Amino acid sequence: MSLTLVMAQDQAPVPALAPRERETLRHIAAGCTYLQAARQMGLSRHTVDAYLRRIRAKLNIGSTAELTRLAISLGL
Fold first, then answer.
1. What Å distances lie between residue 76 and 29, 46, CA to CA?
2. Tens place of pLDDT per residue across the chain (76 aa)
């Protein structure tokens, strides 16, 4: 697994996300609930919640709205 950095527009570099974290972020940014994302990914709602907690911790983001904004700026 590569630990490359991704540049968000007008922001400092953000840590690379694992593929499943990126997929989870894509679903949430598309407007899916945690349960909908979990079903589409073949996971439990709790696993999706864990991925999102990890993403928030890595990126120091507190809300789903901020996560969605970041996903859009990254082209996810």
1. 8, 22
2. 444 444 444 554 556 889 999 999 999 888 899 999 999 999 999 999 999 999 999 888 888 888 888 888 877 7
Helix, strand, or coil (residue 42): coil
CA–CA distance, 45 with 28 (Å, rounded to integer): 12
| CA 65 from centroid of its chain's CA atoms | 11
How far apart, in Å, are the Cα atoms of 54 and each of 10, 19, 50, 62, 66? 23, 13, 6, 11, 14
Tokens standing for 5?
A: 């950095």
State the Cα–Cα distance between residues 57 and 52, nearest whole angstrom.
9
- Determine the Cα–Cα distance for residues 27 and 47; give it in Å rounded to an integer: 14
| pLDDT value, residue 62 | 86
